[in-house]
Structure formats: structure tokens, C-alpha cells
Design brief:
531 residues
Length: 531
């Protein structure tokens, strides 16, 4: 008895039930030439969810040809759209654009269908968002949504809403934009959308929350995505994407070993499906290593860079202790390369403040802090506001305005603690300690220092001796070499007054009262000048 009809029936039933493992297994048991066009499309869908990308591309191409043979150009175009989308995701732009072009040609003269909507998303919405033209993106997103309403496709309606929301966020209308993202997700939570559209919406929403540093919202959507994924027997791609976002949260929360494990587990596999997420996974690995003082962070930054991810500001921060001038140059170049997008520039400017102050380039720090404040004022999310307050407080402190810096830094510290960012909070405690000490309140200064040290110890954070900044380590090494303040200033291209401030801070941190004691401290710890 021929059991193939039963196997095909089970394959089709499993696919309708979104049991990708069973569907793929049953379809695999039937020769490809015996599958209908719909079977080929279902088989391609099932193996895609399992991460079998090459099989998916082969089957989608076969489905496209089979639909054409059946005179079903709309379905053929949809298969071509999916192939183009998946090829673009893995970084194969020439082939991906070729298939997108084929889909557009196949749709010429075809009545409106969902493939038209996805072509608009791929060829108009995403490029305009990437190019920084949010007003144009809003118009395209509304066209997608209206098309979805006309043809009765709720996935296009939701994707159009999401696209409009992301465009509004880019334009600085954060409250309205995030509200549209939430509205689009209602259809996902109600189970009214296809799994592919649902996964895409989860990813777009979480990525937007990360971009604007709305960490509470991001954490909530990551939790919901993981719950959604748990309902599938397998979901290789979206599971990997969600893991990268989870790793980003681990990084902020000081769970660096877990961040590295989570990102490392999916980095290589994502090369075949979403090279941009693979790059971000490697960047998370690099950051987790840098913060723990692992020198192999440099290799991980290289992996991220090789996949198209700018390795800044992490690579500049890694470089800071040994080469402050080089770190300043690197992060300046990264800010310039980021173009005019304020959200892309914000984390770079935050690092520039830290690096420029450590390297004695206060003017750079002032400009960067001013820019972050403007961005935080426009976008007004908790993470950006904490970033801006930290930057402004650090600049005020570097300008010897401790009384002005103190309330700003206290606000920043509170904000970091509210959304569980212990390393950022500890760094702000260090700045608070300096402000208190400059105002003569040694008791409060010691309390902040103790709090920071305890946090760093708990996190396993790599720190210079006694919390010295890279610039302070440089100054101390030159003090140990017998240089005067004037000679140190000439060597580091900073003023005598700045040198004197560094020396005072160093003495407070290491608990000494004379240059002789400071020299002994430096020699005991191997802090010596190299030239």
C-alpha cells in the first residue's frame, strides 16, 4: 500500500498546526517532485523555522516556479519576496535584490495582494528609515496599513502601524511612536497574525526600545517574546534574535558572564540568517569581556566589525587605559561616521565625554554632553536622560564646579538604579565621591567610594587601582618618574591647574598626603612612565 498520501496529509496537518518539526520531517519523507506548489511553500516555511536556511531557499525557489506553472503569479511573487528577504538578512545583497526585483516584475498587473505590501516594506519603508527620512517613511507605512485594510490582511495592518511608529520615534515623537508600536502588538498578543509577522513585530519593537534606551519597555517585550516563542516546538531564527536582545539586557544589568554565554550561543548560527544580529551578538560578547578586563575583547570587537557592526564606542573604551589620545581620535571619528542620526550618535557621545575628560580634552566633552542633553530632551526616555545627566555631571566636575555637579550626579545615579544598571550607577558613585570630596564632605565621599567598590567587586568589573581613571594613572606614573606639575602638563598637553587637580584626586583616592608616598604607591603597583 502506498503510504505517501498519509505522509503528505500528516505534513500538511502539522504545518497548519505550526508544528514545524513534524511538518518538516513528514515533508522530507516525500520526494520533492511529488509536492504541489502549496506543499513546496509549506515545506520551505517549516524548514525555515528550524533554521535550515539553504533548504528553505531551495524549496522557496521551487515553489516560485511551481506557482508560475500553475498560473498563480501572486503566490510566486510572495515566494520571491521571501527569498529576497532571507538573502538580504544573511548579507547577500546582490541576490536578495535580484529576487526582490523578480517579485516586483511578477506582480506587474496583478491585483493588490499581501506581496505588494511586503514589497513596500522592503523597498520603501526600511530604506527611508535607514536613510533618516522619517516623514517619507510615515507615508509609506500608512500606505501599507491602508492596503492591509483593503485586502483584509491584519499582518500588513500591524506592520504598517509598527513602521509608522518607528518613523515617528525617529522623528522625535517618541510618545506617539511608541503608542503605535504598542497598538500593533495588540494583534500579536491576540493571536491574529501569522507567526512570521508576529516575530517580525516583536523584533522591530524591541530593537526600537533599545535604540531609544527605553530599557523598562524593552525588558517587558523581551519577556513577552520569550513567552511567545515557548509556544512553538522550534523557532530557530526568532529565538536567536530574541537571545541577542536578552543578552543586551544582561549587559546593562551587570550580568556579564550570562550576557556573553547568551550571545555566544547564537552568534555563529545567525551568520546564515541575520548577519546584523550576528554582529550585534559579537559586540555584546566584546563588551562583556571588556568590562571584566578580558583582553580577548579585542578579538570579539573584530568579529563584530567583520560583520558590519561599528565596534565603537567599545573599542575606544578598551583602548583608553593604554592610549588616551588614540581613544579620543577613534571615538571622534565614530561620531563623525554616525552622521546626523541623534540616536545613533548618543551612545558614542556618552563615551566621548568619558574618554575626552580622561584624556584632558574638555572642550570635546562639553560639546558631546551638550548634544546628549539635546537628544534626551527630544526623545525623553529614561535611559537617555540618565546618560545625559551623567555626562553633564562629569563635565561640571571636570570644570571644578562640584556644587553644580552634585545634584545632577545624584539624579543620574538614581535613574541608573531605577532600571537596574549597577555598573553605570557605580560609575556615577565614583563621580559623586569626587564632588563630595571637592566640597570638603569626606564622609559622604568615602560612602560613595565604598558603594562603588562593592558594586565593582560583585560584578567582577575590571577597574584601575583604587578607582583611578586612565588619565590619573598617567599622571601618577609621571609623578613617580619625578616630574613636576609643569613637566607633567607639557608631557600630557594639559594645564598646570588640571595637573594639580588630578594630583589632588589621586592623593584622596590612594590615601596619601605627599608625593613621596604617592611614588612608593606607584612603584609598588608597577605604575611607571614608559617614555
Amino acid at each position: 500500500m502506498d503510504e505517501r498520501p498519509d505522509v503528505l496529509g500528516r505534513a500538511r496537518q502539522a504545518h497548519r498546526a505550526q508544528d514545524w518539526v513534524a511538518a518538516a520531517a513528514h515533508f522530507d519523507a516525500v520526494a520533492t517532485e511529488l509536492l504541489t506548489a502549496d506543499d513546496l511553500a509549506a515545506h520551505a516555511d517549516a524548514v525555515w523555522w528550524l533554521g535550515r536556511v539553504d533548504d528553505n531557499l531551495r524549496l522557496e525557489a521551487a515553489a516560485c516556479e511551481a506557482f508560475l506553472a500553475d498560473a498563480r503569479p501572486a503566490d510566486a511573487a510572495w515566494a520571491a519576496v521571501r527569498i529576497g528577504l532571507f538573502l538580504l538578512g544573511r548579507g547577500d545583497e546582490p541576490q536578495g535584490l535580484g529576487w526582490i526585483g523578480k517579485a516586483a516584475r511578477l506582480l506587474d498587473g496583478v491585483p493588490e495582494c499581501h506581496a505588494h505590501g511586503f514589497l513596500l516594506l522592503l523597498t520603501r519603508l526600511e530604506p527611508t528609515l535607514q536613510a533618516g527620512r522619517p516623514a517619507e517613511a510615515v507615508e509609506v507605512a500608512r500606505r501599507v496599513r491602508e492596503l492591509g485594510h483593503r485586502i483584509g490582511r491584519p499582518d500588513l495592518v500591524a506592520l504598517g502601524l509598527n513602521g509608522e511608529g518607528r518613523a515617528l520615534v525617529k522623528a522625535g515623537h517618541v510618545v506617539d511612536g511608541l503608542a503605535l508600536l504598542d497598538e500593533a502588538m495588540v494583534a500579536v498578543l491576540d493571536g491574529r497574525l501569522t507567526p512570521f509577522a508576529s516575530g517580525s513585530l516583536y523584533c522591530h519593537t524591541i530593537a526600537t526600545c533599545h535604540e531609544v534606551a527605553d530599557l523598562r519597555r524593552m525588558a517587558r517585550w523581551v519577556d513577552l517574546t520569550e513567552r511567545w516563542l515557548a509556544g512553538f516546538p522550534a523557532a530557530a531564527l526568532f529565538g536567536g534574535l530574541c537571545a541577542v536582545h536578552r543578552a543586551q539586557l544582561h549587559l546593562v544589568r551587570g550580568e556579564w558572564a550570562e550576557a556573553e554565554r547568551t550571545a555566544s550561543a547564537v552568534a555563529d548560527a545567525l551568520d546564515a540568517t541575520r548577519v546584523d544580529y550576528a554582529a550585534e551578538a559579537w559586540y555584546v560578547v566584546a563588551e562583556a569581556r571588556r568590562l571584566r578586563g578580558d583582553p580577548s575583547a579585542a578579538d570579539a570587537y573584530d568579529e563584530a566589525h567583520a560583520r558590519g557592526r561599528d565596534p565603537q564606542p567599545g573599542r575606544a573604551l578598551l583602548r583608553l587605559p593604554s592610549d588616551p589620545a588614540g581613544a579620543v581620535a577613534a571615538v571622534r571619528a565614530a561620531v563623525a561616521a554616525a552622521g546626523a542620526d541623534p540616536l545613533r550618535r548618543a551612545p558614542l557621545c556618552a563615551a566621548l565625554v568619558e574618554i575626552a575628560i580622561a584624556a584632558g580634552h574638555l572642550d570635546d566633552a562639553v560639546r558631546a554632553a551638550t548634544e546628549i542633553e539635546a537628544t534626551a530632551s527630544t526623545y525623553a526616555t529614561s535611559g537617555l536622560q540618565a546618560m545625559a545627566a551623567t555626562a553633564r555631571g562629569a563635565v561640571l566636575l571636570a570644570q571644578d564646579r562640584a556644587a553644580d555637579a552634585l545634584p545632577v550626579l545624584r539624579d543620574a545615579c538614581l535613574r541608573w538604579r531605577e532600571f537596574h544598571a549597577p555598573h553605570d550607577a557605580a560609575g556615577t558613585c565614583v563621580l559623586l565621591s569626587r564632588a563630595y570630596r571637592a566640597l570638603g564632605d569626606d564622609v559622604s565621599a568615602d560612602a560613595e567610594t565604598a558603594q562603588a567598590k562593592a558594586t565593582y567587586a560583585r560584578l567582577g568589573a575590571h577597574q584601575p587601582p583604587d578607582g583611578l581613571t586612565p588619565r590619573e594613572c598617567e599622571v601618577l606614573a609621571l609623578v613617580a618618574a619625578g616630574r613636576s606639575n609643569r613637566e607633567i602638563g607639557e608631557a600630557l598637553f594639559i594645564s598646570d591647574r588640571t595637573v594639580a587637580r588630578h594630583v589632588t584626586n589621586i592623593f584622596h583616592k590612594i590615601g596619601v598626603t605627599s608625593r613621596t608616598q604617592a611614588v612608593r604607591y606607584a612603584l609598588d603597583r608597577g605604575l611607571t612612565a614608559t617614555g
